[in-house]
Amino acid sequence: MFKRLLSAFGVGGPSVDTVLDTPHVVPGQVLTGSVRIQGGSADAEIGEIALSLVTRIEVESGDSEFTGTGEFQRVVVGHGVRVPAEQLVVVPFRLDIPWETPITAVSGHQLPGMTVGVRTELVIAGAPDKGDLDPVEVHPLPSQDAVLEAFGELGFHFHSADVEAGRIYGVPQQLPFFQELEFYPPAAFAGRLNQVELTFVATPHDLHVVLEADKRGGLFRQGGDMFGRFATSHAEAGNRDWTGLIGQWLEQAAERGPSVYHGDPAFGEYPGPYGQPAPYAHPDQYHHERRGPGMGGVIAGAAAGVVGGLVMGEVMEEIFEGDEEEDFED
User: Fold this and answer.
1) 139, 168, 186: which is the final residue of a domain?
2) Spans in the chain with pLDDT lower than 70
3) Burial of 232 from C-beta contacts in 10 A (0-12 / 13-18 / 19+)
4) Torsion of CA 185, 190, 192, 197, to 10 degrees
5) Helix or strand run (H / E) with residue 250
6) Contact 198, 111 (CB under 8 A)
7) What total number of domains does the chain contain?
8) DSSP 3-state of 243
9) What is the dihedral of CA 116, 118, 123, 126, to 10 degrees?
10) pLDDT score of 235
11) CB 3.0 to 4.6 Å from 46: which of 13, 81, 263, 325, for a disulfide?
């Protein structure tokens, strides 16, 4: 909660706080809270009150890459709100958390580099005044947690996480970006795989898991990328042997050439860019022997304009303090 004076009214004008009932959510939930406007020395009228979800996005353009912030959910919670002098006006709100919202925390540990925030915007005399920006911790769904726990059990080591503008073929993606969780492979695959990337695409009923392995080449071994995908309902995700499924995929990724592995035969082929078997819409760039500590320990150890339909806005300085990011104009 950050209290902020509304600059449009100058000294003595009203101030605004956005209060979240809880900053902890999972995809598909509804975030609730209230916008609290404290009247200043004179009556005031606010044309519109809106709240939006924003996150940091990496965008590739040709040979360059830049980072900005993107708004991916927005709701207007008030029109023509009159704020009497010296009085408090409270406007409650409900903000749906999209099913594809990036995960920012796992097992109580913040994912390095990942942040989602709620931004409060008040329109006064036709001009927007971007006020509060409150961080929100987005935790995995139980179905996503089951996959992450398997990664920990297999001995993966968390490397990094980011959100990239783009789309993945063959999955019911709604938002114009996707999150990538990058891991170093288990020790048994050292020398054969460089890293493995994990992406979740969730819907109200199902979870789609997309994997990409960067295969290390050698004198008698072809390098390149190996892709895999699995799909399940949220209800069935907890009953699946993710450790076995992902372990089998790892073995195939390490031994075979660049290709697509379909964990669920019911789902057909999906083409990649330029006719290649890669699921991502833009070109980019385990084994049971060693049991790991679970994903909570893995994360804890690691931590010790418009672009494709995505509204890109100003840098979220309140959240991304100290980061250097590019500022995008609508």
Assistant:
1) 139
2) 1-11, 131-132, 215-224, 256-330
3) buried
4) 20
5) helix 242-255
6) no
7) 2
8) helix
9) 20
10) 96
11) 81
